[in-house]
Design a protein that fits this description.
This protein is mainly α. It has nine helices and no strands. The protein has helices at residues 12-42, 46-60, 64-78, 88-116, 121-129, 134-149, 151-164, 176-186, 191-220. The model has no long low-confidence stretch (mean pLDDT 86). This is Amino acid ABC transporter permease.
């Protein structure tokens, strides 16, 4: 049933390695962009608040496929942005990361905003009474507690991000979903085995991540 794995025709580990890289780079970028968005949304500048609110509401409700294809067609093919890459494969990979960051950052932002709401208002007021500015209050007092409060929701976002990397196949990134498509076309007599292999691969990627971050969430939880 699984004879196609021994043929050497398919680079299964290479495809999942690309998926892992997509998830890793996108997770880092999403945390940074999501943190910046939440700072805009809770900040004192009306223009930034409006931008953050509008961006989150629009991008979060746009299909991820549209976001990633839009990055590829709009930024690369139309405007000529390549993010420093020369080869088609590298350009596609970086555009996929950009699209995943732009999309997933909105969910990180909302998770962090819910964490900020768990921080007692009196702590921020006490910090301002000591002469700290907004940025200092946010980075020294509020965000550290917010991150601790939302480890579990962020873990769910990260797991969803890992599964969402399959959308990168829409712009030709050689990750797991694109290889699965080729295997389905070539191994029509072993469809169940192909699905089982890729389902197991994603379980291997996401299950340990969920268990680890669940343990971290319990360890760092803020006791009220």
């Amino acid at each position: 049933m699984f004879d196609f794995l021994d043929s050497g025709q398919y680079d299964l580990l290479g495809a999942f390695w690309v998926t892992t890289q997509l998830a890793l780079y996108s997770a880092i970028g999403s945390l940074v962009w999501g943190t910046a968005l939440v700072a805009m949304r809770v900040g004192p500048v009306p223009l930034l608040r409006a931008f953050g609110t509008g961006y989150v509401n629009v991008v979060r409700n746009t299909p991820l496929t549209v976001v990633i294809v839009g990055c590829s067609i709009g930024l690369n093919q139309t405007l000529g942005f390549s993010l420093g890459a020369d080869r088609f494969e590298d350009i596609g990979f970086r555009m996929a990361v950009l699209g995943l960051v732009a999309y997933t950052g909105t969910f990180v932002c909302e998770a962090l905003r819910s964490g900020i709401n768990t921080v007692p208002v009196g702590q921020a007021e006490a910090a301002r009474a000591l002469g700290l500015g907004f940025f200092q209050v946010l980075t020294l007092i509020v965000l550290p507690q917010a991150f601790r409060a939302v480890v579990a929701p962020l873990a769910n976002v990260l797991i969803a991000l890992t599964k969402n990397t399959t959308v990168a196949a829409a712009i030709g990134v050689a990750e797991a979903a694109l290889l699965m498509k080729d295997m389905i076309e070539n191994e029509a007599d072993a469809l169940f085995a192909v699905f089982a292999v890729f389902a197991f691969g994603f379980v291997v990627l996401t299950l340990p991540m969920g268990l680890l971050l669940g343990w971290v969430s319990k360890r760092v939880a803020v006791k009220r």
